[in-house]
Amino acid sequence: MMIGGSSSRKGSDSARLSLVNASSKISQTGLLSGEGNLGFQNSSSPSASFLGVPARDGSEIFAQTSLPLILEGETGTGKEFLARMIHENSPRKKGPFIVLDATHFSSEIADALLFGHRKGTFTGATGDQKGRLELSDKGTLFIDELQNMSLEIQMKLLRFLDRKTLQPLGSSTEISIDARILVATNEPLSSLLSNGRLRPDFFYRIRGKTIRIPSLRDQLGEIPSLIEWKWRKWQEENKSQPPILSKEGIRVLQSYSWPGNIRELFSFLDCLLATFLPQEKVPMDWIREELKSLQIDLSGSQCPDKWEDLAIERELIVGSLRSSGGEIAKASELMGMSRTTLWRKMKKLGIRPFEGV
Question: Where would I find the Sigma-54 factor interaction domain in this sequence (predicted)?
Answer without folding.
Answer: 62-274
